[in-house]
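Human: I would love a firmer grasp of how sequence relates to backbone shape in proteins. Could you go through the record with me and say what the backbone is doing? Here is the record:
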Amino acid sequence: MKVTQVAAASTRSRHSWMDFLRGFAILLVIAFHSTKMLSRVDLMPPMWLKDATEFFALYRMPTLMFLSGLLLPQSLKKDTVTYFTGKIRSVLWPYLVWSGVTALVFSRDVSSIQAIVSLLNAGSYLWFLFFIGLFYGFAYFVKRVNPLAIAVVAFVVAVAALFASKGIQVQSRMFYLMSYFFLGAFVARHWDAFLTFVDKRTSLVAVLIAILGGIAAAYFDLKSQPMAVPVVFAFIVGACYLSRKVADKPWAQLPNYVGQNSLKFYVSHFPAIYLFDVLGTQLGLEHSGVLAVLSIFVALAVGMIFSVASEKSVAVQWLFSAPKFQGSRFRRPPAAI
């Protein structure tokens, strides 16, 4: 094997735990939406499934934001044109394409400029991509600033917005998640030190704290908010520790694959769950627990079909990124989430 091949294999092995953790977080998002979608077909989720998904309510999106932030320093090494072109192709393009899919599947009003703006202004399940796009754009203009300082400022703004509105609002959530994005960027700049910290057995204490926080979230029906940041950070540390232990296990292949193709699973799962639920209820399947569990498998199947098909078809790949052509060769941008 060539030296370059050995290095590439080593890099994949070294970061497989990140694919695992990203895939695990996406699976949690899919499970959460499988329960929330039931209300659209006039069904109530079973309590056991609701509690299981609420256990991770504090952790899902901050973890995904943190993992996305880990990619930022490497992206910022690119020149201006390459940087923004890549983000347009891998973030803005799928956001616009799947916003169109959302409007079609859910019969969203797009008859006026105001309605279109409402849809595109984080007005759907695609809000994560909307936020990521804003964060990447902002990051380029503050790339000389310490990411930790930006994370702290974003957290302070999130808290101020939360108290100003006396409740969670879009602005508070945006700045709150921005703090995890730039925390990830800070960690990426101190990679070896972070891994040394995470790999200590004391990370099991963080796992315990995260479990207690999850139980509290399920019992008290807590939502993600700035006040939970110590518990969320404990979850991230504990999740990184456990992911590094299990990512290479044979049974970890599913979350690894989902993590490697996270964008495809993320953008396709919501319409897939909805359409399956509508079809299922029309066929007389009204057991909410069965419908929710089956919809998870359907969403995974759809994501896998898109992932495989996009490797073979330029037309399918257009659903997830704007391709760049050099002659007849098709090139895809690196994943942004």
Q: What stands out?
A: The CA atoms of residues 51 and 218 lie 5 Å apart.
